From TrEMBL:
Highest rank taxon of the organism: Eukaryota
Domain Nephrocystin 3-like N-terminal: 1-134
Disordered: annotated span: 342-374
Native species: Lasiosphaeria ovina
Entry keyword Repeat: yes
Ribosomal protein among keywords: no
Family matches, as InterPro entries: NPHP3-like_N
Protein name: NACHT domain-containing protein
């Protein structure tokens, strides 16, 4: 429901607020193991606090005197990081701190973070926590329990349309303005698009973005007809894009690409992709071709600084739905294994002090492997 966009705006506002104190934030991302666990969140929060207040390094150095200790990946590392974090928050010389975590629901061990919020809220009254999450029953139950214990306010609910209406209105205005400039809309077309987006958005920034992408290549004379045929759900819009890929002569290749990224646990660089390009019908070494193919896989994939990843958690959920078993029909166990068997290519979890993580070989049914919980 646009939680991340709202928190980005909140961070920007807080950074320009005088006398705020220290501000630290972390944006979780379920599709990247570097951003989807409690250890990564805590390391990120600590880093930003120390970066703003270098004197806080005194709380970090005693706990990381050996080089290998600086990579906190296992359970023992979490305990060490909590000690560092608590020491920073209870430092008597520090001002008020505002700590933000976005997409708590995308953290694989969110219970650790919820417990941390409870402990620090009780012990550190000068610390303000701001957390966003999908409003799932299990997460709401955990946060409600914390709120009751320490008297926290859970604040506004992003499920309430009124809480995001102003942001949605402005977002729609900017998007329609861009479309008007790009496609030379007349006033009637511009107003029709704006009314449609405002009426059907239901507080969902991603849905607005996907609809506007559909309209970018739609002639002005066909806009009204296009709007009448667009679904009002994100999954429905993904379906339109998937059908478009099915009609392409390169569909078999697109299926392989989407299958790989639907099971990869972290982003993959273009350079890494071409190393194992035999998976993609022998396109070895041709980065330009790869990049063009990947761009056509939007909105499922995104490319940033020559690194490719799933664009949004909902895209991964869509690709792994039962009815898309077809994606894995042309992908063999051997095709998937290169993307799961090395640290750079998608699947391996970070090494721990107890030895490198071991990756299981994929079973014969690639689709079953993609849906198997690791």
């Amino acid at each position: 429901m646009g939680k991340t966009m709202l928190l980005c705006g909140m961070v920007n506002e807080l950074q320009s607020t005088p006398d705020l104190g220290l501000l630290s934030f972390f944006f979780c991302q379920a599709t990247d193991w570097r951003l989807n666990n409690a250890v990564a969140v805590l390391r990120g929060l600590i880093f930003l606090l120390v970066d703003q207040q270098p004197s806080l390094i005194v709380h970090v150095r005693p706990k990381s005197h050996r080089a290998e200790d600086e990579v906190y990946w296992d359970v023992d590392s979490w305990i060490g990081l909590v000690k560092i974090f608590t020491a920073i928050l209870t430092d008597p010389n520090q001002p008020h701190m505002c700590l933000i975590i976005d997409a708590l629901d995308e953290c694989v061990d969110l219970t650790l973070l919820v417990e941390l919020v409870f402990q620090t809220s009780s012990a550190c009254p000068s610390v303000t926590w701001i957390i966003s999450s999908r409003n799932t029953p299990s997460i709401k139950e955990r946060l409600d329990a914390v709120a009751q214990k320490v008297g926290l306010s859970l604040g506004l609910s992003l499920e309430d349309e009124g809480s995001v209406s102003e942001a949605i209105t402005e977002f729609v205005r900017v998007k329609v303005q861009n479309l008007t400039w790009l496609n030379e809309y007349d006033n009637a077309t511009r107003d029709a698009v704006e009314r449609y987006l405002q009426k059907n958005a239901c507080g969902n920034f991603l849905w607005i973005s996907l609809v506007c992408q559909e309209l970018e290549n739609t002639p002005r004379s066909e806009v009204q007809m296009k709007l009448a045929g667009l679904p009002n759900t994100i999954m429905g819009l993904y379906g339109i894009r998937m059908n478009r890929l099915r009609e392409s002569d390169n569909y078999e290749l697109y299926k392989k690409i989407l299958a790989v990224f639907s099971i990869a646990e972290n982003p993959i660089t273009l350079g890494e992709l071409v190393i194992v390009a035999d998976t993609f019908d022998g396109l070895y070494g041709n980065r330009n071709v790869f990049e063009k193919l990947l761009e056509l896989c939007s909105p499922f994939l995104t490319i940033h600084e020559r690194t490719v990843s799933i664009a949004h958690l909902s895209a991964k959920e869509y690709l792994l739905m039962e009815e898309h078993h077809e994606l894995f029909s042309s992908v063999t166990e051997a095709d998937l294994k290169p993307f799961l068997a090395s640290k750079g290519l998608g699947g391996v979890r970070p090494p721990s002090s107890k030895g490198s993580a071991k990756v299981r070989d994929p079973p014969e049914d690639a689709y079953a492997y993609a849906n198997h919980e690791t």
